[in-house]
Amino acid sequence: MALIVQKFGGTSVADTDKIKAVAERVMALSKQGHQMVVVLSAMSGETNRFVNMAQHMQSIPDPREMDVLLSSGEQVTVSLFAMAVKAAGFDAVSLLGDQVKIQTDIMHTKARIKSINADLIKEHLNSGKIVVVAGFQGVTESGDITTLGRGGSDTTAVALAAALEADQCEIFTDVEGVYTTDPNICANARKIDKITYDEMLELASLGAKVLDIRSVGLAKKYKVPIHVRSTFTDTEGTWVVEEDKTMESMLVSGVTYSKNEARITFAKVPDTPGIASRIFNPISDAGIVVDMIIQNTRAGDMTDMTFTVPRTDYETAMKVVEKTAKEIGAERVSGDPHIAKVSVVGVGMRNHSGIATTMFHILARENINIMMISTSEIKISCVINEKYTELAVRALHDAFELEKENIPIED
Amino acid sequence: MALIVQKFGGTSVADTDKIKAVAERVMALSKQGHQMVVVLSAMSGETNRFVNMAQHMQSIPDPREMDVLLSSGEQVTVSLFAMAVKAAGFDAVSLLGDQVKIQTDIMHTKARIKSINADLIKEHLNSGKIVVVAGFQGVTESGDITTLGRGGSDTTAVALAAALEADQCEIFTDVEGVYTTDPNICANARKIDKITYDEMLELASLGAKVLDIRSVGLAKKYKVPIHVRSTFTDTEGTWVVEEDKTMESMLVSGVTYSKNEARITFAKVPDTPGIASRIFNPISDAGIVVDMIIQNTRAGDMTDMTFTVPRTDYETAMKVVEKTAKEIGAERVSGDPHIAKVSVVGVGMRNHSGIATTMFHILARENINIMMISTSEIKISCVINEKYTELAVRALHDAFELEKENIPIED
């Protein structure tokens, strides 16, 4: 008998029939003797409906009141779910964020969990109930409702699994798991059976949107094994777990890309101390987050500075940097919103030096110019012209033979 | 400066524009220096939508979960309302039933308020906030969400007014107040300026649906003056208050009617001890509530027993009584679902014996046969053939000259 936490997202509980289907799934495990904790999101579409209503009331809706509004969404799904379970003759109880005492800080609309009181849930589990917890929501010390931001239900599930010392945490979504790359681009993309927290963190931040990045960090911290899988099939999905020996033999786990960035270059900047802060402070003051930064030294006392910003902030950023360029006496500032970042990720590359070389070689072979390079311990990213994205992804996926199941999976 | 509690029902907050309009109204009073507590219902239609979803999950939805579901409705309106207030530059805070600590018993879907902690509301009022409270909902001692049943937001408003010792409690609705009779039947119907709690209780239970009957009882107990008025005009509505001397001069306050009942008669029942319980126990066991009961003694050891039941229960009741009739040896049992109860209500009739005589005389003059009569201290009701309802109401309204403003109102 195991204690299992299962989280179902908005598309999995989009209407009453889908809620019933999910309840069946949970009850099947309960019937096998497992203790079940279910975490639910709001019905898909509800959050957008609430945001639209709120914006009609106040141009920038008050964050505290926004959380009161948004948290009503999960209240609907958890109560309906509990009814479906009871209708089938099982016992169930719904619990909201404040009832579970999912205590958070006071950062409304993007709160962080500080503590969870697992006692009430355990009590209900021990009396034979399926416990249905509203995801995405918590409560401050003074009793105000908070929400955890987009993807917050994943975080709720992992945090509960940690607090309850659950045997597993299953995140159900509308895809079958994590793939070696985007199946829409590369027909050879293969579902990954097992991946480390660190790899998942790199993939998530790069846009593999199956799992909220915060929840992966939390899972890593508390060593909670996550199983990402599809609501609509019984197929095994992807396990996100601690690193083990067998995983190192796989050099690269996946190829990922992002088209959400734009490039900005300052050419011939006087290379004096403090120049970086004079460039980046005004950008940061405009609320724009810079991702990659590369500085090249030129002959003389000149330097070039290139960096990327979110594409949605590109026009605002260009206005800021044109002003800065005059102030600091840069010769020229240029930008390009049509770039893409292509990355290969894998824990195996830590002990293997050839990955970067292979990546550069493959891109060169395809005549793709590399504009920027950045690396982490388990990731190499290249910025290229956006139009070559798909070509680059497919070529790299082929080169690293990601379509092959090349490590034995031990469970 | 007064402390004013205002309650707005579902039709008053049916969409975001209406919520904005209501917020304007509240802010106008706040600007005058009054401390404002606003109690809101869910948007009209939401409760029905939730009930339909719940019934799709479970034929008889679990009451605890039903309350979790239903209470999400007010959560939406209070947060949107607070945003509207903040958008206009005033300060506001929304509070849910558990945050105000509106503690109730554990009778889910029809809970009764046990206590209210007014401290948090007072604190917010003293810091200059408009306090927006979710109506209709409370919380049990163990932290479960409860709801107060239909009309529960009226009860929330009156209970808060009592706990806060508010100067007035205004119930906003889609009519202008309480009328001397149904304006759809009688063009002469006049809005009543002032009415006692007791009269209102009699009118409410008879179907004048502007105010929930429980809230009137609560207002009477705590001497909370209620002002029932329209959301959509600035006209004064009806004050529901303690009786004062001036009110006695008005013999009759209103004429009301109900078409929701049906009549059942046992003819020639053996008149033995215990016969009433043998007739009414099976009806009560079937969950049917009997209203009026009349027993006539016949010659010999026989009696006739006539009573009324809710019209929706008529067919079920007839099946029950046909079985009973055989068991107790009644000669015959007959029923009539096409009846109406017409009543005149007024505190003045306590000290005046002519009201009943006048009522019987007027009905006789119009050739309307009286089937049953029942009286209370401040009410006389006659059951008649349904088809004469409108005729009877108009004739009685004319006879008691209710179209005339016949008492001076002192405020």
The whole-number mean of residue pLDDT values of chain A reads 91
Could you give the count of β-strands of chain A?
20
- Named CATH architecture of the largest domain in chain A: 3-Layer(aba) Sandwich
CATH structural fold name of the largest domain in chain A: Carbamate kinase
Rounded radius of gyration of chain A (Å): 24 Å
* Total of DSSP H or I helical runs spanning 4+ residues of chain A: 14
The CATH superfamily label of the largest domain in chain A reads: Acetylglutamate kinase-like
Structural class of chain A: alpha/beta
Strand content of chain A: 25-35%
Chain pair with largest interface: A-B, 37 and 37 residues
Question: What would the principal axes of the Cα set say about the shape of chain A?
Answer: globular
Keywords:
eight-stranded mixed β-sheet; Carbamate kinase; 2 domains; 14 helices; disordered C terminus; four-stranded antiparallel β-sheet; alpha/beta; 20 strands
Commentary on this structure:
- Two copies of one chain form a homodimer.
- By secondary structure, chain A is an alpha/beta fold.
- Chain A folds into two domains: 3-174, Acetylglutamate kinase-like (Carbamate kinase), CATH 3.40.1160; 244-406, 2-Layer Sandwich (VC0802-like).
- The first copy, chain A, is built from 14 helices and 20 strands.
- The first copy, chain A, has helices at 16-31, 46-57, 63-70, 72-87, 97-100, 119-126, 152-164, 197-205, 213-222, 245-248, 275-285, 314-328, 354-365, 389-399, and strands spanning 3-8, 35-40, 92-95, 102-104, 113-116, 130-134, 137-139, 145-147, 168-173, 194-196, 226-230, 238-241, 254-258, 261-270, 293-297, 302-310, 332-336, 339-345, 372-376, 379-385.
- In chain A, the strands form five sheets. The first copy, chain A, has an eight-stranded mixed sheet, sandwiched between helices. In chain A, strands 13-18-20-19 form a four-stranded antiparallel sheet, with helices on both faces.
- The longest helix of chain A is centred in the N-terminal third of the chain and has 16 residues, at 16-31.
- The two termini of chain A are 17 Å apart.
- Mean pLDDT of chain A is 91; it is low at 407-411.
- At the A-B interface, helix 1, helix 2, helix 3 and helix 4 of A face helix 1, helix 2, helix 3 and helix 4 of B.
